[in-house]
Structure formats: structure tokens, C-alpha cells
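Methods — Computational structure assignment.
A single polypeptide chain was analysed. Its primary sequence is given first, followed by the predicted tertiary structure written as C-alpha cells.
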Amino acid sequence: MDLFSHVLVAYLLTYGLVGPQPQYLAAGALAGGLPDADALFFPLAKRFPILRHHGITHSLTGVTVVAVVGAFVAPMILPGSVLIYFAAMELGGIAHILQDGFTQFAVPPLLPFSDTRLHIDADRAISFVTLIVSVIGFYVLLDVERNHVALSVYIATLWVLTAFFVAYFSIRLAGRAAIGRHRMVLGERAEPVPTGNPFSWLLLSETVRDARVRTTWARYVLGRGVTEGPVSVEGPIEPSPHAGTPASATEALEWSYPLARHASRVLQTTYHFGEAFEEPAGTWVAVWYSLEFTMFGRSPAVRVRFPTSGEPAEVRSSFYRPVQHPI
């Protein structure tokens, strides 16, 4: 979850706990974002791994320590009850843990006693759907409506935002549950991967055999079932000897995969897929995309172009939009 959504969800939950009391709403919202301050520990994280991102600050111990400190410091800034400050900040911190555990990035809620991970894997770490709603929500609540409309209107806006997040998370959980019944559609147990669209998922499997990687995927849409695939592609992990230029899409994919894999750590660490096509001049191009990260329809990818002159392949990493040329 993005920082804006963490803060807004904590704000909404705090409102449900204490009502329209600004000092507690501010404390709860702040606590909802504070766990991500572990990014400041980056220089120390290599020496003390517990301080890594999604480490101790994303645990019940971490958020409770923050809530205790905040409960005693906050009344010095804005008068209020120590117990209510603690409850608001504890709730905000726990909400952050649950939201992160809801995404593909696991969190260890029981650190330092156990490294057991909470990993629901129902949403992307940064969802543009929730990000856009959160940014607009903050603008409306804190600028357009604050001190400009009746309290009843302000409260109605809070309930509308709450309903949105409840509905969004419900759709994600429903999709996660429904797709589990289709995990054998690829002929082997597949992993469900959420996309930026809350109704759309990818089913992915990857096997490594004889120094070759094979990726198979299918698209699942909530309420419609499997709408694309399964489709497979494979390639060698290490470059194989060859001369000249590719004569087909299969050769272009075969020759380009080791080059693309070595050029991008994203491809090495995420599920990925490739397509190859021939340009009008007869030049073969292969593009390998990450299937786990997208931004406005584009994915981090590596484009490998084989010049017709037989010169070394041109390798370029960037964000590309899948073209899906016919093969």
C-alpha cells in the first residue's frame, strides 16, 4: 500500500474509534504512516537486519513502542487522554501492518520473537486505484470541506471513503479466494498474482530444468473465469552459441532471453514473459516483460534488437507496453 492510503485508512479507522476529535485523528493518521519511516534506517539495515524495510517497524512490537511513546508525548502538544492517544496510534500502526500483509510484500508482525510472515498477497504494494482515491480524499477532507461545510457533510464524506476501502478490500479478497479454485489450470500448481485492476489476476508458474526457464501464464477475471491463456514461453539461462541473425520469433526469444535476464534484476526476481516480432526491414526484436509490475499499462522490460548486419545485439532496459504481435 502507498503512504497516502496507509494514512487515510488509519484516519478513517481512528474516526470510527473516537469520532471527530482532531487531535486523535491526527495521531492515528500519523501512526498509520510511521512504519514506513524505516526507510531512514537504510544505512544501518545491513549491519542490523531487524531495521530493514518491513522489519521491526512493521511488527506489533514496533507499533506498540511507537504508540506508547506517542501517548505520552502527544498530550504535551495537543491536550488529550493518554489512553485514547495510545489506542488511536496502536490502531493506526496495526492497520499499516495488515495493509502491507494484504499485498505481495510480506511483513513479520511477531518480530523480534518470530520471523513468521503475514502474506495474504491480494493486492499490489502500490495500487493506483487506492492512491488516486486517497490523494483526492485528502484534498477534499483537508482543503475543500474542512471549516467550509457542515459537520454532517464532512462525516458523510468519511463514510463514503470508508465504504470505498471496505468494498475494495472485499473485492480483492473475493478474487484471491476465487482464483484458488483455478490454480491447476496451467497443468501444474500456479501462483496467483494480483494486477493493478482489482478484478483481474494472473496465474503464473515457472519451472527451471536443464538450465532452461519456462514460464506459463493465464489471465483470470473475477466473475468471468480464465479469459486468456494458458500461454508458455521458455529460454536458456545462459547464452548458447549462434551466428548471424534470428530466422524466427522462436530463435529471437531463445537468443535474447539470457541477454535480457542478465541486463535486468527485475526479470531475474519476478515472473516474466516475452514476445518477438520482425520489423519491416527484416530486423528481429524480442522484448521481455515483468508480469508483476505495471505502471499505466507499461512494464519494466528489456528490449533486444538483432541488427541484420550480424552485429552484436542491442540491449535496452526501459518501461514498455506489450504489443502482442502475431507470431
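Note: The mean pLDDT is 87.
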